[in-house]
Specification:
single chain; about 35% helix; three-stranded parallel beta sheet; alpha/beta; about 100 residues
């Protein structure tokens, strides 16, 4: 589903798709990685995610300094953000934040 959706809506925008298999159960015998591992591997500069735990992972494992916590969901609305994290409630503010980070402000 993800690959097909990306091909349909974002043709030629991405050079690769990385999966963490985060929601696979322990009995699935499947290779799982943290988003911190993936961000370190690909040299990411920013993570946009709706789950603060993933932001914590990239800050500690990938030394990433820019994490956008997206949305106001039951699973993230009461979480405390670490330094380097900013919360954005919609895509317009997310785009502005990414542009701010890219400009070096």
């Amino acid at each position: 589903m993800t690959k097909r959706m990306l091909d349909n809506h974002f043709t030629d925008c991405f050079s690769s798709v990385e999966h963490t298999n985060f929601y696979a159960s322990a009995s699935d015998q499947i290779f799982k990685r943290s988003k911190g591992e993936v961000c370190r591997k690909i040299g990411a500069n920013i993570l946009i995610d709706d789950y603060v735990l993933h932001g914590e992972s990239v800050i500690s494992e990938a030394a990433l300094k820019n994490v956008v916590v997206f949305g106001d969901y039951p699973w993230n609305k009461n979480d405390i953000l670490l330094p380097g994290m900013v919360r954005c409630f919609d895509w317009q503010s997310t785009i502005r934040e990414v542009e701010r980070i890219a400009s070096g402000e």
